[in-house]
């Protein structure tokens, strides 16, 4: 089953200019003017894509073939926009937790400008008022459908940060420069929509190896690249060079097949949170389930009867915090085949389950050495070989995690196996069901392995 595309339909966002009756032709004409070269083997189309605009192979494509190249001058960033000089001069005042404010201000300015050089590119954007990120769902619906998945909590943080950033930094800046920002774009709702759009459509150039200690690069908009939809099993990849960004085929693409990029190794809860769609089970091979770190602590406390034991357990937890293995808001991340937080989970199980005398010795040596760590490598397939106390604590943690969902696995399976019942669900209900089901399948696999 194909994944839902990230765009609902094309529409001109709020701003200057008339909507183009043929946005694809306008975009392709613009590509020619700015030097964005598309291979004759590909086309931008609404036909043959999973939904909305995408890119399709007109002819068979071989691995390594160039699909298109975007010159750096055609990228939309704080440096290339028409107020780049102003944003650079005021850079110090635009610092924020997200690091996105300069790009968002660039978009707010260009969207309102009737003669913006990026207008043909904007015409292929989704309609901002129809974005399907959970941050735009009613709060009751979001909590009801996504309870237990981690999405409602992530959205709450997003909304609080967006509001704070807008009123503390963005709005004062726009009001200080009224000649650059008309009143129609001074809107929290529009700002929230653009944050969602940047979340879903922007790209972040990776740092070079020698730059890894630096702050991450700021996001930028890459016309052409953001037309491609996502699959975990993708067939194209974006490459960065000094002069341009190149989309290159990573495997054979038959004629008529859609070209897919990857947004990275994203679990379904991350896809719906950041992009507004999911990959139906079992297509997303990168799907994961989280066990909150504090849930493991809660599971360990279940068997504690004496106050001295309880105090010792909290001492163990504090020691794990000191080792930076756990935190109050952290999570252990489990994939279908691997434990992504292997070291953290292994260390936590070991410290919480070891005898008191062994813990004291472990405490004195401030953790374990490399040889010990290698002996305790943790993989999903290796879980049945764990010590009984470790398996028991992990199992209790999984059971507590499953209690956070509003429905059980069988309820989800019954709906998914009944095509008629599934078809009656709303689009949001279907997406949320896929998120919950994928997580529960991983958690139930853990239950089986820890029995």
Top keywords for this entry?
451 residues; globular; four-stranded antiparallel beta sheet; alpha+beta; disordered N terminus; 10 strands
Question: Can you walk through the features of this model?
Answer:
Helix 14 runs antiparallel to helix 17. A hairpin with an 8-residue loop joins strand 2 and strand 3. This protein has 17 helices and 10 strands. Helix content is 43%, strand content 9%.
Question: What secondary-structure arrangement, pairings included, does this model have?
Answer:
Elements: H1 23-34, E1 37-38, E2 42-45, E3 54-57, E4 66-71, H2 84-89, H3 101-112, H4 119-122, H5 139-146, H6 151-176, H7 188-201, E5 229-230, E6 236-240, E7 244-249, E8 260-261, H8 268-274, E9 288-292, H9 293-302, H10 307-322, E10 331-335, H11 342-353, H12 356-364, H13 370-375, H14 388-402, H15 409-416, H16 419-423, H17 427-449
């Amino acid at each position: 089953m194909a994944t839902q595309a990230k765009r609902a339909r094309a529409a001109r966002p709020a701003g200057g200019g008339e909507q183009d009756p043929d946005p694809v032709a306008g975009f392709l004409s613009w590509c020619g003017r700015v030097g964005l070269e598309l291979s004759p083997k590909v086309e931008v189309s609404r036909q043959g894509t999973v939904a909305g605009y995408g890119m399709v192979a007109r002819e068979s494509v071989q691995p390594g073939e160039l699909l298109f190249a975007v010159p750096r001058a055609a990228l939309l960033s704080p440096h290339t926009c028409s107020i780049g000089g102003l944003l650079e001069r005021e850079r110090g005042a635009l610092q924020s937790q997200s690091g996105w404010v300069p790009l968002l201000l660039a978009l707010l300015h260009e969207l309102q400008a009737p003669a913006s050089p990026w207008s043909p590119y904007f015409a292929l954007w989704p309609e901002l008022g129809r974005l399907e990120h959970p941050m735009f769902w009613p709060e009751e619906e979001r909590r009801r459908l996504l309870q237990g998945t981690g999405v409602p909590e992530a959205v709450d943080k997003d909304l609080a940060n967006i509001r704070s950033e807008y009123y503390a930094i963005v709005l004062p800046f726009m009001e200080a420069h009224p000649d650059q920002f008309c009143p129609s774009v001074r809107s929290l709702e529009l700002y929230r929509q653009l944050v969602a759009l940047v979340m879903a459509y922007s790209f972040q150039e990776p740092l070079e190896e020698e730059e890894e200690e630096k702050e991450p690069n700021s996001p930028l908009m890459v016309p052409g690249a953001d037309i491609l939809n996502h699959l975990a099993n993708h067939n194209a990849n974006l490459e960065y060079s000094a002069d341009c960004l190149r989309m290159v085929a990573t495997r054979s693409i038959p004629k008529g097949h859609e070209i897919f990029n990857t947004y990275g190794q994203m679990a379904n809860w991350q896809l719906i949170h950041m992009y507004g769609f999911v990959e139906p089970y079992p297509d997303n091979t990168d799907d994961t389930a989280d066990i909150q770190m504090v849930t493991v602590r809660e599971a360990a406390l279940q068997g504690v009867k004496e106050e001295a034991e309880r105090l010792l357990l909290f001492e163990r937890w504090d020691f794990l915090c000191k080792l930076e293995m756990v935190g109050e808001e952290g999570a252990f991340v489990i994939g279908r085949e691997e434990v992504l937080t292997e070291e953290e989970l292994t260390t936590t199980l070991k410290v919480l389950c070891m005898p008191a005398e062994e813990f004291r010795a472990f405490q004195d040596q401030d953790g374990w050495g490399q040889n010990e760590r290698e002996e305790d490598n943790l993989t999903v397939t290796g879980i049945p070989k764990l010590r009984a106390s470790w398996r028991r604590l992990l199992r209790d943690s999984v059971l507590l995690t499953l209690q956070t969902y509003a429905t059980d696995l069988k309820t989800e399976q019954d709906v998914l196996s009944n095509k008629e019942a599934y078809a009656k669900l709303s689009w949001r209900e279907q997406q949320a069901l896929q998120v919950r089901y994928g997580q529960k399948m991983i958690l139930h696999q853990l239950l089986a392995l820890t029995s």
